[in-house]
Amino acid sequence: MDKTKLRQRAVFMRSSLFDEGFLDEQFIQLEELQDNVNPNFVEEIVTLFYSDSVRLIYNIERALMSNPPNFTKLDDYMHQFKGSCSSIGAKKVKNECTRFGEHCAAENFEGCFRTFQQINIEYTTLKKKLETYFKVWYRSVVAFHTLPRLSEFWKGVPVRSSLEREKERGGFGQRRRR
User: Fold this and answer.
1) What residues have CB less than 8 Å from 27, skipping those under 6 apart?
2) Could you tell me where the DSSP H helices lie in 70-149?
3) Residues of the chain with pLDDT under 50
4) Does residue 84 contact residue 49 with C-beta atoms inside 8 Å?
């Protein structure tokens, strides 16, 4: 694959992560911190997130198995996990964490359980997509023989903000009818 097609593939993959709602603007902020001094910064932060989250997910699983469930403890564990998700811009996972917290507040065990299953799906899907994206991105960087700041690499590649997407859906702060 020539270097232009490789870059186009990386651009498409990155755009898809935003368009499909997997990532939010926090991920862009991480990208802006990456430079020649810290060439793997974003990947290292994401890798750290995934290694640290194993403990949090384990704690949530254990708390879900307790009888009766301790919804306060469940909510505390999920709040920690949600904060970690926010730090890398894992939008879909973070949104599911919010739903989980709502089920905890309502002491709805079935809702917590189903939402936790969805969290695992979104978490795993994002992990696979990011692993693939990082591989393609690094191959494209090698093809260009440089490691630009990510903000320079993506210059001219539009990423719609959540506000822009919300406006397209009918306006910020307005509820959509279902």
Assistant:
1) 17, 18, 42, 88, 89
2) 71-88, 91-105, 109-144
3) 148-149, 151, 153-167, 171-178
4) yes
- The two tokens of residue 49 are 């997130």
Cis peptide before 68 (omega within 30 of 0): yes
> Which two structure tokens, joined as six digits, stand for 99?
């739903």
Confidence (pTM): 0.79
Q: Are 46 and 126 in contact (CB under 8 A)?
A: no
The C-alpha angle with vertex 77 and arms to 112 and 129, in degrees rounded to 5, equals 75
**Distance in angstroms (rounded) separating the CA atoms of residues 15 and 36:** 23
32: burial class by Cβ within 10 Å (0-12, 13-18, 19+)? middle
User: CA-to-CA distance for 109 and 118, rounded, in angstroms?
Assistant: 14
CA pseudo-torsion sign 99, 127, 26, 20:
negative
Q: Give the tens place of pLDDT for each residue, 15-50.
A: 999 999 999 999 999 999 988 788 889 999 999 999
Q: Residue 23: name the closest of 85, 115, 101, 116 by CA.
A: 85
Cα gap 104→24, rounded to integer Å:
25
- Nearest-angstrom CA–CA distance, 43 and 158: 21
